[in-house]
Amino acid sequence: MIQLYRASILHFVSNPSQTEKESSYEYWEDGLLVVKNGKVEKVGKYSKLVSDYDAFAVTDYSGKLILPGFIDTHIHFPQTEMIASFGAELLDWLNTYTFPTEKQFGNKSYAEKIAKFFIRQLLLQGTTTALVFGSVHKESVDAFFEQAQKHKLRMIAGKVMMDRNAPDYLLDTPESSYADSKELIEKWHGKDRLLYAVTPRFAPTSSKEQLAKAKQLLEEYPEVYLHTHLSENHGELAWVKELYPDADNYLDVYNKAGLVRSKSVFAHSIYLSETEWSTLHNHDCSVAFCPTSNLFLGSGLFNIQAANKHKVRVGMGTDVGAGTSFSILETLQEAYKVNQLRKAFPEEGYEHEPLDTLEAFYLATLGGAKALHLDHVIGNFEKGKEADFVVLDLASSELLEFRLNQCKSLEEKLFVIQMLSDSRTIEQTYILGQPAL
Length: 437
Ligand code: GUN
Ligand code: ZN
Hints:
With about 425 residues, the protein is α/β, with parallel strands linked by helices.
Protein backbone atom coordinates (compact mmCIF):
# COMPACT_ATOMS: atom_id res chain seq x y z
CA MET A 1 0.00 0.00 0.00
CA ILE A 2 1.33 3.43 -1.01
CA GLN A 3 0.43 6.67 0.81
CA LEU A 4 1.52 10.16 -0.21
CA TYR A 5 1.76 13.23 1.99
CA ARG A 6 2.42 16.72 0.65
CA ALA A 7 3.72 19.33 3.13
CA SER A 8 6.84 21.18 4.14
CA ILE A 9 9.05 18.37 5.41
CA LEU A 10 12.07 18.50 7.74
CA HIS A 11 14.27 15.75 9.10
CA PHE A 12 17.81 15.34 10.38
CA VAL A 13 20.55 13.11 9.08
CA SER A 14 23.18 13.96 11.71
CA ASN A 15 23.72 15.94 14.91
CA PRO A 16 23.94 19.69 14.17
CA SER A 17 26.01 20.24 17.32
CA GLN A 18 28.68 17.74 16.21
CA THR A 19 28.78 18.31 12.45
CA GLU A 20 28.31 21.12 9.97
CA LYS A 21 24.87 22.51 10.64
CA GLU A 22 23.94 22.90 6.96
CA SER A 23 24.52 19.23 6.22
CA SER A 24 22.74 17.96 9.35
CA TYR A 25 19.22 18.28 7.98
CA GLU A 26 17.13 18.14 4.83
CA TYR A 27 14.18 20.43 4.25
CA TRP A 28 11.68 20.64 1.44
CA GLU A 29 9.41 23.68 1.48
CA ASP A 30 7.02 21.81 -0.81
CA GLY A 31 7.81 18.19 -0.10
CA LEU A 32 6.38 14.73 -0.62
CA LEU A 33 6.64 11.85 1.83
CA VAL A 34 5.99 8.47 0.27
CA VAL A 35 5.03 5.63 2.62
CA LYS A 36 4.89 2.02 1.49
CA ASN A 37 3.40 -0.61 3.80
CA GLY A 38 4.05 1.52 6.88
CA LYS A 39 7.67 2.29 6.01
CA VAL A 40 9.28 5.32 4.40
CA GLU A 41 9.72 4.70 0.69
CA LYS A 42 10.95 8.13 -0.40
CA VAL A 43 11.05 11.77 0.61
CA GLY A 44 11.90 14.79 -1.49
CA LYS A 45 10.63 17.69 -3.52
CA TYR A 46 6.97 17.35 -4.46
CA SER A 47 7.39 18.47 -8.07
CA LYS A 48 10.20 16.00 -8.61
CA LEU A 49 8.56 12.93 -7.08
CA VAL A 50 4.85 13.23 -7.71
CA SER A 51 4.85 12.10 -11.34
CA ASP A 52 6.11 8.65 -10.26
CA TYR A 53 2.92 8.15 -8.26
CA ASP A 54 0.15 9.21 -10.68
CA ALA A 55 -2.07 6.35 -9.65
CA PHE A 56 -2.24 7.35 -5.96
CA ALA A 57 -4.12 10.06 -4.07
CA VAL A 58 -2.12 12.68 -2.21
CA THR A 59 -3.05 13.76 1.33
CA ASP A 60 -2.51 17.48 1.05
CA TYR A 61 -0.96 19.21 4.05
CA SER A 62 0.42 22.13 2.04
CA GLY A 63 1.52 24.96 4.30
CA LYS A 64 1.90 22.57 7.25
CA LEU A 65 5.09 20.96 8.52
CA ILE A 66 5.80 17.24 8.72
CA LEU A 67 8.47 16.07 11.17
CA PRO A 68 9.45 12.59 12.34
CA GLY A 69 7.41 11.59 15.42
CA PHE A 70 8.70 13.02 18.69
CA ILE A 71 10.68 10.79 21.04
CA ASP A 72 10.35 11.03 24.82
CA THR A 73 13.36 9.42 26.48
CA HIS A 74 12.03 9.49 30.05
CA ILE A 75 8.45 9.36 31.36
CA HIS A 76 6.44 7.57 34.08
CA PHE A 77 3.07 6.24 33.02
CA PRO A 78 1.78 5.56 36.59
CA GLN A 79 2.30 9.24 37.44
CA THR A 80 -0.20 10.54 34.89
CA GLU A 81 -2.88 11.32 37.43
CA MET A 82 -0.57 13.24 39.75
CA ILE A 83 0.98 15.58 37.21
CA ALA A 84 1.04 19.12 38.66
CA SER A 85 1.17 18.27 42.40
CA PHE A 86 2.04 21.27 44.51
CA GLY A 87 4.98 22.43 46.50
CA ALA A 88 7.58 19.70 47.03
CA GLU A 89 11.05 18.82 45.89
CA LEU A 90 12.14 15.37 44.80
CA LEU A 91 12.29 13.30 47.99
CA ASP A 92 9.15 14.84 49.58
CA TRP A 93 7.36 14.70 46.29
CA LEU A 94 8.08 10.96 46.02
CA ASN A 95 6.78 10.27 49.53
CA THR A 96 3.81 12.62 49.44
CA TYR A 97 2.43 12.10 45.97
CA THR A 98 4.27 9.49 43.93
CA PHE A 99 4.32 6.41 46.11
CA PRO A 100 0.64 6.54 47.14
CA THR A 101 -0.32 7.04 43.48
CA GLU A 102 1.83 4.19 42.19
CA LYS A 103 0.29 1.83 44.76
CA GLN A 104 -2.85 1.56 42.63
CA PHE A 105 -1.02 -0.04 39.70
CA GLY A 106 -1.09 -3.50 41.21
CA ASN A 107 -4.68 -3.49 39.99
CA LYS A 108 -4.54 -4.51 36.34
CA SER A 109 -7.79 -2.93 35.24
CA TYR A 110 -6.84 0.35 36.87
CA ALA A 111 -3.44 0.23 35.16
CA GLU A 112 -5.18 -0.46 31.87
CA LYS A 113 -7.41 2.56 32.21
CA ILE A 114 -4.46 4.86 32.90
CA ALA A 115 -2.35 3.26 30.14
CA LYS A 116 -5.07 4.07 27.60
CA PHE A 117 -5.28 7.67 28.75
CA PHE A 118 -1.48 8.01 28.91
CA ILE A 119 -0.95 6.75 25.36
CA ARG A 120 -3.63 9.08 24.07
CA GLN A 121 -1.86 12.03 25.74
CA LEU A 122 1.41 11.08 24.01
CA LEU A 123 -0.26 10.80 20.62
CA LEU A 124 -2.11 14.10 21.07
CA GLN A 125 1.29 15.74 21.49
CA GLY A 126 2.95 14.05 18.52
CA THR A 127 5.04 11.62 20.59
CA THR A 128 5.34 8.28 18.87
CA THR A 129 8.05 6.56 20.93
CA ALA A 130 8.87 6.75 24.64
CA LEU A 131 11.07 5.11 27.25
CA VAL A 132 8.59 4.47 30.04
CA PHE A 133 8.78 3.70 33.76
CA GLY A 134 6.04 1.37 34.99
CA SER A 135 5.35 0.88 38.69
CA VAL A 136 6.84 -1.90 40.82
CA HIS A 137 3.94 -4.16 39.77
CA LYS A 138 4.42 -6.35 36.72
CA GLU A 139 0.70 -5.82 35.96
CA SER A 140 1.43 -2.17 35.20
CA VAL A 141 3.89 -3.12 32.47
CA ASP A 142 1.57 -5.74 31.02
CA ALA A 143 -1.18 -3.12 30.87
CA PHE A 144 1.09 -0.57 29.22
CA PHE A 145 2.51 -2.96 26.61
CA GLU A 146 -0.94 -4.33 25.76
CA GLN A 147 -2.19 -0.83 24.97
CA ALA A 148 0.98 0.13 23.09
CA GLN A 149 0.68 -3.05 21.06
CA LYS A 150 -2.92 -2.21 20.12
CA HIS A 151 -1.71 1.10 18.70
CA LYS A 152 1.25 -0.60 16.96
CA LEU A 153 3.64 1.75 18.78
CA ARG A 154 7.38 1.49 19.16
CA MET A 155 7.77 1.71 22.92
CA ILE A 156 10.27 0.72 25.61
CA ALA A 157 9.14 0.08 29.18
CA GLY A 158 10.03 -1.77 32.35
CA LYS A 159 8.85 -2.72 35.79
CA VAL A 160 10.38 -0.64 38.58
CA MET A 161 12.77 -2.54 40.83
CA MET A 162 12.78 -1.15 44.40
CA ASP A 163 13.45 -3.15 47.55
CA ARG A 164 14.11 -0.51 50.22
CA ASN A 165 13.51 3.06 51.43
CA ALA A 166 9.92 3.22 50.26
CA PRO A 167 6.59 2.18 51.81
CA ASP A 168 6.24 -1.60 52.28
CA TYR A 169 3.34 -1.73 49.89
CA LEU A 170 5.67 -0.75 47.01
CA LEU A 171 8.65 -2.96 47.79
CA ASP A 172 9.75 -6.02 45.90
CA THR A 173 12.81 -8.14 46.73
CA PRO A 174 15.95 -8.84 44.71
CA GLU A 175 14.54 -12.28 43.85
CA SER A 176 10.99 -11.21 43.02
CA SER A 177 12.17 -8.22 40.97
CA TYR A 178 14.46 -10.53 39.02
CA ALA A 179 11.73 -13.11 38.42
CA ASP A 180 9.07 -10.53 37.45
CA SER A 181 11.43 -8.63 35.14
CA LYS A 182 12.54 -11.87 33.49
CA GLU A 183 8.95 -12.90 32.90
CA LEU A 184 8.19 -9.52 31.32
CA ILE A 185 11.31 -9.63 29.14
CA GLU A 186 10.39 -13.10 27.86
CA LYS A 187 6.85 -11.97 27.20
CA TRP A 188 7.42 -8.54 25.64
CA HIS A 189 10.97 -7.78 24.52
CA GLY A 190 11.03 -7.82 20.71
CA LYS A 191 7.32 -8.51 20.41
CA ASP A 192 6.00 -6.37 17.54
CA ARG A 193 7.61 -2.94 18.17
CA LEU A 194 8.02 -3.33 21.94
CA LEU A 195 11.26 -3.46 23.89
CA TYR A 196 12.15 -3.93 27.55
CA ALA A 197 14.19 -1.80 29.97
CA VAL A 198 15.49 -3.16 33.27
CA THR A 199 14.36 -0.34 35.58
CA PRO A 200 15.82 0.04 39.08
CA ARG A 201 14.11 3.24 40.33
CA PHE A 202 17.32 4.91 41.59
CA ALA A 203 20.26 4.02 43.85
CA PRO A 204 18.50 4.89 47.16
CA THR A 205 15.62 2.45 46.62
CA SER A 206 17.69 -0.57 45.57
CA SER A 207 20.00 -2.68 47.73
CA LYS A 208 23.32 -3.85 46.30
CA GLU A 209 21.75 -7.30 46.03
CA GLN A 210 19.00 -5.91 43.85
CA LEU A 211 21.43 -4.00 41.61
CA ALA A 212 23.31 -7.31 41.21
CA LYS A 213 20.06 -8.89 40.01
CA ALA A 214 19.61 -6.06 37.52
CA LYS A 215 23.10 -6.78 36.20
CA GLN A 216 22.29 -10.48 35.94
CA LEU A 217 19.25 -9.64 33.80
CA LEU A 218 21.40 -7.48 31.50
CA GLU A 219 23.91 -10.31 31.15
CA GLU A 220 21.21 -12.81 30.34
CA TYR A 221 19.46 -10.41 27.93
CA PRO A 222 22.17 -8.13 26.49
CA GLU A 223 19.70 -6.53 24.07
CA VAL A 224 17.49 -4.97 26.76
CA TYR A 225 17.92 -1.44 28.13
CA LEU A 226 18.86 -0.13 31.56
CA HIS A 227 16.73 2.83 32.64
CA THR A 228 17.13 4.72 35.92
CA HIS A 229 17.54 8.15 37.53
CA LEU A 230 20.90 9.80 38.15
CA SER A 231 22.03 12.92 39.99
CA GLU A 232 18.83 14.95 40.03
CA ASN A 233 18.66 16.74 43.37
CA HIS A 234 21.01 17.84 46.19
CA GLY A 235 19.15 15.92 48.91
CA GLU A 236 19.27 12.80 46.75
CA LEU A 237 23.01 13.21 46.16
CA ALA A 238 23.73 13.47 49.90
CA TRP A 239 21.59 10.41 50.56
CA VAL A 240 23.39 8.36 47.89
CA LYS A 241 26.73 9.30 49.49
CA GLU A 242 25.47 8.06 52.84
CA LEU A 243 24.05 4.83 51.45
CA TYR A 244 27.04 4.03 49.22
CA PRO A 245 30.13 5.35 51.05
CA ASP A 246 32.46 3.26 48.84
CA ALA A 247 31.33 4.87 45.60
CA ASP A 248 33.52 7.61 44.09
CA ASN A 249 30.44 9.49 42.87
CA TYR A 250 26.76 8.83 42.08
CA LEU A 251 27.39 7.24 38.69
CA ASP A 252 30.01 5.01 40.29
CA VAL A 253 27.23 3.31 42.30
CA TYR A 254 25.76 2.09 39.03
CA ASN A 255 29.18 1.49 37.49
CA LYS A 256 30.35 -0.71 40.37
CA ALA A 257 27.08 -2.60 39.99
CA GLY A 258 27.82 -3.21 36.28
CA LEU A 259 24.89 -1.13 35.05
CA VAL A 260 26.83 1.50 33.10
CA ARG A 261 26.84 0.28 29.51
CA SER A 262 25.64 0.98 26.02
CA LYS A 263 21.82 1.17 26.13
CA SER A 264 21.87 2.55 29.69
CA VAL A 265 19.68 5.66 29.91
CA PHE A 266 20.12 7.97 32.90
CA ALA A 267 17.37 10.51 33.52
CA HIS A 268 18.29 14.01 34.74
CA SER A 269 22.11 13.74 35.13
CA ILE A 270 22.29 17.32 36.38
CA TYR A 271 25.14 17.35 38.90
CA LEU A 272 27.84 15.37 37.12
CA SER A 273 31.60 15.77 37.45
CA GLU A 274 33.91 15.69 34.45
CA THR A 275 34.81 12.15 35.50
CA GLU A 276 31.17 11.09 35.40
CA TRP A 277 30.65 12.65 31.96
CA SER A 278 33.75 10.83 30.71
CA THR A 279 32.49 7.56 32.14
CA LEU A 280 29.14 8.06 30.41
CA HIS A 281 30.94 8.70 27.14
CA ASN A 282 33.36 5.80 27.53
CA HIS A 283 30.49 3.38 28.13
CA ASP A 284 28.33 4.83 25.33
CA CYS A 285 25.49 5.73 27.73
CA SER A 286 22.61 8.13 27.16
CA VAL A 287 21.07 10.85 29.30
CA ALA A 288 17.55 12.28 29.29
CA PHE A 289 17.24 16.07 29.56
CA CYS A 290 14.01 16.75 31.50
CA PRO A 291 13.68 20.54 31.75
CA THR A 292 10.04 20.89 32.81
CA SER A 293 10.58 18.41 35.63
CA ASN A 294 13.89 19.91 36.69
CA LEU A 295 12.28 23.35 36.92
CA PHE A 296 9.07 22.12 38.52
CA LEU A 297 10.81 20.25 41.36
CA GLY A 298 13.49 22.92 41.59
CA SER A 299 16.09 20.23 40.90
CA GLY A 300 18.60 22.20 38.83
CA LEU A 301 19.80 23.18 35.38
CA PHE A 302 21.01 20.43 33.06
CA ASN A 303 24.24 21.22 31.25
CA ILE A 304 23.83 20.33 27.61
CA GLN A 305 27.18 21.93 26.75
CA ALA A 306 28.89 19.41 29.01
CA ALA A 307 26.99 16.54 27.39
CA ASN A 308 28.00 17.79 23.94
CA LYS A 309 31.60 18.38 24.94
CA HIS A 310 31.81 14.78 26.13
CA LYS A 311 29.82 13.49 23.12
CA VAL A 312 27.25 11.81 25.32
CA ARG A 313 23.97 10.78 23.68
CA VAL A 314 21.14 13.09 24.79
CA GLY A 315 17.38 12.81 24.35
CA MET A 316 14.50 14.94 25.61
CA GLY A 317 12.40 13.62 28.49
CA THR A 318 9.11 14.99 29.74
CA ASP A 319 9.41 13.04 33.02
CA VAL A 320 5.65 13.27 33.61
CA GLY A 321 4.44 13.36 36.47
CA ALA A 322 7.30 15.56 37.78
CA GLY A 323 7.34 17.07 34.31
CA THR A 324 4.46 19.40 33.64
CA SER A 325 3.67 18.57 30.04
CA PHE A 326 3.38 15.57 27.72
CA SER A 327 4.51 17.81 24.88
CA ILE A 328 8.05 17.51 23.56
CA LEU A 329 7.63 20.93 21.89
CA GLU A 330 6.81 22.52 25.25
CA THR A 331 9.72 20.58 26.75
CA LEU A 332 11.99 22.17 24.13
CA GLN A 333 10.68 25.61 25.11
CA GLU A 334 11.78 24.98 28.68
CA ALA A 335 15.08 23.48 27.51
CA TYR A 336 15.87 26.76 25.80
CA LYS A 337 15.07 28.72 28.97
CA VAL A 338 17.08 26.38 31.20
CA ASN A 339 20.07 26.89 28.97
CA GLN A 340 19.56 30.67 29.07
CA LEU A 341 19.38 30.58 32.85
CA ARG A 342 22.71 28.76 33.09
CA LYS A 343 24.31 32.06 32.09
CA ALA A 344 23.51 33.20 35.61
CA PHE A 345 25.99 30.58 36.95
CA PRO A 346 29.27 31.32 35.17
CA GLU A 347 31.31 29.47 37.82
CA GLU A 348 30.44 26.21 36.03
CA GLY A 349 33.06 27.14 33.44
CA TYR A 350 31.12 26.22 30.31
CA GLU A 351 30.37 28.61 27.53
CA HIS A 352 26.71 29.43 27.39
CA GLU A 353 25.63 29.65 23.83
CA PRO A 354 21.85 29.71 23.42
CA LEU A 355 20.43 26.25 22.72
CA ASP A 356 20.61 25.98 18.95
CA THR A 357 17.22 25.67 17.26
CA LEU A 358 18.23 22.94 14.86
CA GLU A 359 19.77 21.06 17.74
CA ALA A 360 16.47 21.32 19.65
CA PHE A 361 14.51 19.70 16.81
CA TYR A 362 17.27 17.14 16.36
CA LEU A 363 17.04 16.19 20.05
CA ALA A 364 13.27 15.73 19.72
CA THR A 365 13.65 13.33 16.75
CA LEU A 366 16.88 11.72 15.52
CA GLY A 367 18.76 12.61 18.72
CA GLY A 368 16.10 10.84 20.79
CA ALA A 369 16.28 7.85 18.46
CA LYS A 370 20.07 7.71 18.86
CA ALA A 371 19.77 8.07 22.65
CA LEU A 372 17.50 5.01 22.56
CA HIS A 373 19.65 3.16 19.99
CA LEU A 374 16.66 3.08 17.67
CA ASP A 375 17.99 5.24 14.84
CA HIS A 376 18.10 2.20 12.55
CA VAL A 377 14.28 2.11 12.63
CA ILE A 378 12.95 5.57 13.59
CA GLY A 379 14.06 9.20 13.97
CA ASN A 380 14.06 10.41 10.36
CA PHE A 381 12.70 9.67 6.90
CA GLU A 382 15.47 7.51 5.49
CA LYS A 383 14.14 4.78 3.22
CA GLY A 384 12.94 1.74 5.11
CA LYS A 385 12.38 3.44 8.46
CA GLU A 386 9.07 3.10 10.25
CA ALA A 387 6.74 5.89 9.11
CA ASP A 388 5.88 7.52 12.43
CA PHE A 389 5.45 11.24 11.93
CA VAL A 390 3.67 14.35 13.08
CA VAL A 391 1.89 17.09 11.13
CA LEU A 392 2.17 20.59 12.59
CA ASP A 393 -0.48 23.22 11.82
CA LEU A 394 1.50 26.44 11.58
CA ALA A 395 -1.65 28.54 11.80
CA SER A 396 -2.92 26.85 14.96
CA SER A 397 -3.07 30.14 16.82
CA GLU A 398 -3.35 33.71 15.59
CA LEU A 399 -0.11 34.58 17.32
CA LEU A 400 1.87 31.67 15.86
CA GLU A 401 0.61 32.42 12.34
CA PHE A 402 1.24 36.14 12.71
CA ARG A 403 4.74 35.70 14.13
CA LEU A 404 5.73 33.11 11.51
CA ASN A 405 4.80 35.61 8.81
CA GLN A 406 7.58 37.86 10.05
CA CYS A 407 10.25 35.11 9.69
CA LYS A 408 12.73 35.03 6.86
CA SER A 409 14.77 31.87 7.43
CA LEU A 410 13.94 28.27 8.28
CA GLU A 411 15.82 28.50 11.57
CA GLU A 412 13.91 31.59 12.57
CA LYS A 413 10.63 29.80 11.77
CA LEU A 414 11.62 26.72 13.73
CA PHE A 415 12.53 28.81 16.75
CA VAL A 416 9.15 30.51 16.70
CA ILE A 417 7.46 27.10 16.40
CA GLN A 418 9.56 25.85 19.35
CA MET A 419 8.59 28.82 21.52
CA LEU A 420 4.96 29.48 20.53
CA SER A 421 3.38 26.18 19.60
CA ASP A 422 0.98 24.33 21.87
CA SER A 423 -1.18 21.22 21.67
CA ARG A 424 -3.36 22.84 18.99
CA THR A 425 -0.30 22.86 16.73
CA ILE A 426 -0.32 19.06 16.51
CA GLU A 427 -2.74 18.47 13.67
CA GLN A 428 -2.23 14.73 13.37
CA THR A 429 0.11 11.99 14.53
CA TYR A 430 0.82 9.08 12.20
CA ILE A 431 1.89 5.60 13.25
CA LEU A 432 3.30 3.40 10.49
CA GLY A 433 1.67 5.70 7.95
CA GLN A 434 -1.79 5.60 9.57
CA PRO A 435 -3.47 8.45 11.46
CA ALA A 436 -3.41 7.71 15.17
CA LEU A 437 -6.04 10.20 16.33
N1 GUN B 1 13.90 9.60 41.36
C1 GUN B 1 13.43 8.42 41.82
N2 GUN B 1 12.15 8.23 41.46
C2 GUN B 1 11.80 9.30 40.74
C3 GUN B 1 10.60 9.68 40.07
O1 GUN B 1 9.59 8.99 40.08
N3 GUN B 1 10.63 10.87 39.42
C4 GUN B 1 11.73 11.66 39.38
N4 GUN B 1 11.69 12.80 38.70
N5 GUN B 1 12.86 11.32 39.99
C5 GUN B 1 12.89 10.15 40.66
ZN1 ZN C 1 11.69 10.25 36.33
